[in-house]
Write a structure and sequence with these properties.
The chain folds into three domains: 70 residues, Structural Genomics Hypothetical 15.5 Kd Protein In mrcA-pckA Intergenic Region, Chain A (Roll); 85 residues, Pseudouridine synthase, CATH 3.30.2350; 137 residues, Pseudouridine synthase, CATH 3.30.2350.10. Helix content is 18%, strand content 26%. Strands 5, 6, 7, 8, 9, 10, 13, 14, 15 and 16 form a ten-stranded mixed beta sheet that branches. The chain has a four-stranded antiparallel beta sheet with strand order 1-2-4-3, with no helix packed on it. It has a two-stranded antiparallel sheet with strand order 11-12.
C-alpha cells in the first residue's frame, strides 16, 4: 500500500482499481495486522471519505481512506520484487488469458496462498500477470499444495466477485483425474457424505453429525487389475480435501500417494510418481451469451509416467459427466 499524503497524525490512501469491491478490513491487512485493522475501524480511527465505517464495508476505487499515522510503524514489509526467473515461471503456467480471466496450470508442491513458513505460493507470483491495465489477478478459488492442475484467476474486481459466486453456487464443472487403490466396487456413482474437521488440524473427515454437506460424482475410467483405477471426480461442492476424504472414507479407495489420508505409499510401486495422484484436469466455466469457457490442463510429466506405467489412456477430450447438470 502506498500513501498519497501524510499528515501529522494521519495518512491518506486512495483505493486503487484492483481493490475495488474488497472488504476494508481485508484490504488493510496487507499493511497492518488484521486484528489491529478491525480495532481501529471499530474505534472510528479509520475512515472512508471522512466518514466512520464498518469492518465489512466494501471499498470503491477512488475513495480516500484515512489511517492514523502512528500506526505506520506496524506496516508489513513490502514484498521483494519478482525476479525474471519467477516472472517467466508463472507465465509458463498460463493456459488461457482474455485480459480479465486467467487460467493457469498450477504445479504440484506449490501452495495457492502463503502462510507460516510458506514462501512458494501462487499468490506471491501474481504481480507478474498484471496485464496491460496493471491489474494484478486474484485467486478465484484454491487447490491443495499437493494437487496440480487448473486454477482460475481474474483481474477485474467485478469479475472476481461474479466468479466467486459461481463457484459457490455450483455452476462450474471442475473435473479431476486421479489414480486410486484399490479399484472402486462401483463403476460410477455419487458420494453424498458431509465433511467436517478431523482429529488433526490439517485433516478433514466424514462427519454425519456436524459436517457440511458435500457431494462428489465419480466415474471409473480404466483399471489395472483389482489394485489400481483411473477415476474421474467432479466435486459438486467445495469442501476442504473433499475428493481425498470421499475417496478414502466413502469409497475405501485412497488416492495413490496421499499420505495424509492413507494412500498407498508410492515407494512400494516402481514406475509411479512420488506424489499425490490427483490433478485438476479440466474446468468448464459458463460465460455471458451462453458461452462455455472450457480449459484443460495436461498431466505433468511425472503423472504421465504413472498413467503409462499402469497402461491408462489419458485423454483430456473425454468428459465423463457430459450429460449431468
Amino acid at each position: 500500500m502506498s500513501f498519497d499524503r501524510i499528515g501529522k497524525k494521519e495518512i491518506f490512501v486512495t483505493v486503487p482499481a484492483d481493490a475495488d469491491g474488497q472488504r476494508l478490513d481485508r484490504w488493510l491487512k496487507k499493511s497492518m495486522p488484521f486484528i489491529l485493522a478491525q480495532k481501529l475501524i471499530r474505534k472510528g480511527a479509520i475512515r472512508i471519505d471522512g466518514k466512520r465505517t464498518k469492518q465489512d464495508a466494501r471499498i470503491t476505487e477512488g475513495q480516500e481512506i484515512r489511517i492514523p499515522a502512528f500506526e505506520n510503524a506496524t506496516q508489513k514489509k513490502a514484498p521483494k520484487p519478482l525476479t525474471t526467473q519467477e516472472q517467466d515461471r508463472i507465465a509458463s503456467w498460463v493456459l488461457y488469458d482474455d485480459g480479465d480471466i486467467v487460467v493457469i496450470n498450477k504445479p504440484y508442491g506449490v501452495s495457492s496462498q502463503g502462510g507460516e513458513n510458506v514462501t512458494d505460493h501462487v499468490d506471491r507470483l501474481l504481480p507478474a500477470l498484471a496485464g496491460q491495465k496493471n491489474l494484478t489477478p486474484k485467486l478465484v478459488h484454491r487447490l491443495d499444495k499437493e494437487t496440480s492442475g487448473v486454477m482460475v484467476l481474474a483481474r477485474v474486481p467485478a469479475t472476481i466477485r461474479h466468479l466467486g459466486k459461481m463457484f459457490k453456487s455450483r455452476e462450474v464443472k471442475k473435473i479431476y483425474w486421479a489414480i486410486v487403490s484399490p479399484v472402486p466396487e462401483l463403476k460410477e456413482g455419487a458420494i453424498r457424505a458431509p465433511i467436517g474437521q478431523g482429529s488433526a488440524f490439517d485433516k478433514m473427515c466424514i462427519d454425519e453429525d456436524e459436517g457440511k454437506f458435500a457431494l462428489t460424482d465419480f466415474v471409473t475410467m480404466d483399471k489395472a487389475g483389482d489394485q489400481f483405477a483411473f477415476v474421474a471426480f467432479w466435486p459438486r461442492t467445495g469442501r476442504t480435501h473433499q475428493i481425498r476424504v470421499h475417496a478414502t472414507e466413502a469409497l475405501s479407495c485412497p488416492i495413490v500417494g496421499d499420505r495424509r489420508y492413507g494412500g498407498v505409499l508410492e515407494e512400494d510401486h516402481m514406475g509411479l510418481a512420488k506424489r499425490l495422484h490427483l490433478h485438476a484436469g479440466r474446468i468448464l466455466l459458463p460465460l455471458k451469451g451462453n458461452k462455455i469457457l472450457d480449459v484443460s490442463a495436461p498431466l505433468p510429466d511425472e503423472l504421465m509416467e504413472s498413467w503409462k506405467a499402469l497402461g491408462f489412456d489419458y485423454a483430456l477430450s473425454r468428459h465423463p459427466f457430459e450429460d449431468k447438470k
